[in-house]
Design goal:
mainly alpha; three-stranded antiparallel β-sheet; 26S proteasome non-ATPase regulatory subunit 5; PSMD5; ARM-type_fold
C-alpha cells in the first residue's frame, strides 16, 4: 500500500482546490443574495453573526470569537478527494509494480532507447518510467532494471547539454528518495562520474547549465546521505565559498548558492559535521553572510523571500534534541538583531 508521503503533495493541492471551489460557489451565492435584497442587508449591518465563504464565524458584540463551524459540504468534499487521491496513487503504484515484472513491457522500453537527438523524446519517456519505478518505497529490482538504469546514466553526456542536465535532475530525484538508491549508484560508479563532471564544468562557461545540474544533484544527495559533505569535499568547499562571496555572484547563482547551503544542512549527520571542531568550513561566517544578504537594502522583496525560504528550510527540520541544540547555536550566528530584522522583513 502507498505510504502517506507518496501522495501528501497532491493531497495538499487538492484540498486547496476543493476549498477554492467551495469559496467561489459561496461568493457567487452571496453576490446573488446581496443584489436581490440590498435594503435588508443594509439594515442588518450591526448583526452579530458574520458569514465567511470558507466557514461560519460567530462573534460577540465586542468582536471576540464565539464559534468556528466548517460546513459539512467542505468536509464531505475533503473526504471524497482524499479517498480519490489515495486510490489513484495506489492504483498507479500497483500498475507500476506490474510493469516492472512484465518482461514484454521491459523489452518494449528497451526497444525505444535508440541513440540520437531525434529519438530523445522517446528515450526520456522511458527514463521517466525508470525514475518512477526507482522512487517506489519498496523498489529493489536493480538488476532487473539495470539496462534501463544504465541507459539513463548514459544520458550524463556533455555532448547533449540539455539531455545531460535533464538526466541529472532525474538522477537527483532518485538519489534523494532513499539510501538504497544511493548505494546502487555508488556501486556502478555514477557518483564519482558526476563528481568529476562537477569539477570539469566548473571553469567552463559553456557548461553552466550542466554545472548547475551537478550542484543540484549533490545538494539533493546530501538530504539522504548524511556523509555526502565529507565524501565530496570539493563540492562542499564550493558551496561555502559561494556563500562567503555571495556579493560577487549574479542573482540566480546567488539564489542557487543559498538554496544549496540550506539543503545540505538538513540531516543530523550534516549538522554534526558542520558543528564539529574539526570541520574545515566556517558555519558561523556562512550564517552571518545569510543575515547580511537579508539585511541588505538593495535586496529586492523577491530576493528577501528567497532567503526567508532558506531560513525555513534550515530551521524547520528538527529531528531530535541534539538537532534542536545545534540549531539554537546556528540561530545565534545570525546575530542578536536578526529577530528584529526578520519581523521588519515580514512586515514589509
Amino acid at each position: 500500500m502507498s505510504s502517506a508521503s507518496e501522495y501528501s503533495s497532491d493531497l495538499s493541492s487538492s484540498l486547496i482546490s476543493g476549498y477554492t471551489n467551495y469559496c467561489s460557489s459561496c461568493n457567487q451565492n452571496s453576490n446573488i443574495f446581496t443584489s436581490s435584497s440590498s435594503s435588508t442587508t443594509n439594515s442588518r449591518k450591526s448583526s452579530r453573526e458574520t458569514v465567511s465563504p470558507t466557514y461560519l464565524l460567530s462573534t460577540t458584540s465586542s468582536g471576540s470569537l464565539e464559534s468556528l463551524r466548517a460546513p459539512a459540504e467542505v468536509f464531505k468534499l475533503i473526504t471524497t478527494k482524499t479517498y480519490q487521491i489515495m486510490k489513484d496513487q495506489i492504483d498507479n503504484n500497483r500498475e507500476l509494480r506490474s510493469k516492472i515484472k512484465d518482461d514484454d513491457f521491459i523489452k518494449q522500453q528497451l526497444s525505444l532507447l535508440s541513440p540520437g537527438i531525434d529519438n530523445s523524446e522517446k528515450r526520456f519517456l522511458v527514463h521517466k518510467f525508470t525514475r518512477s519505478a526507482m522512487l517506489l518505497p519498496d523498489f529493489n529490482d536493480y538488476q532487473r532494471l539495470s539496462p534501463l538504469i544504465n541507459a539513463l546514466v548514459n544520458e550524463v553526456d556533455t555532448n547533449d547539454l540539455l539531455g545531460c542536465s535533464t538526466a541529472l535532475e532525474m538522477l537527483a530525484d532518485i538519489a534523494s528518495s532513499k539510501q538504497e538508491n544511493i548505494n546502487y549508484f555508488e556501486s556502478i560508479g555514477l557518483l564519482q562520474k558526476i563528481y568529476k563532471l562537477f569539477q570539469t564544468t566548473k571553469e567552463d562557461t559553456d557548461m553552466g547549465i550542466t554545472h548547475t545540474a551537478c550542484i543540484r544533484f549533490f545538494g539533493y544527495l546530501s538530504t539522504t546521505d548524511s556523509n555526502a559533505l565529507e565524501k565530496f569535499p570539493i563540492f562542499t568547499s564550493d558551496v561555502f565559498d559561494a556563500i562567503y562571496h555571495f556579493d560577487s555572484l549574479d542573482p540566480l547563482r546567488r539564489k542557487l548558492a543559498f538554496e544549496t547551503f540550506a539543503v545540505v544542512t538538513k540531516t543530523i549527520g550534516a549538522k554534526r559535521f558542520l558543528s564539529s571542531e574539526n570541520c574545515p568550513y566556517n558555519i558561523a561566517k556562512a550564517f552571518n553572510c545569510l543575515a547580511v544578504a537579508i539585511a541588505r537594502g538593495s535586496a529586492t522583496p523577491e530576493r528577501k523571500a528567497w532567503y526567508l525560504d532558506n531560513i525555513t528550510t534550515i530551521f524547520g527540520n528538527v529531528e531530535s534534541a541534539e538537532s534542536s541544540n545545534i540549531l539554537k547555536i546556528w540561530f545565534n550566528y545570525l546575530g542578536e538583531h536578526f529577530p528584529k530584522l526578520l519581523l521588519i522583513v515580514l512586515k514589509n
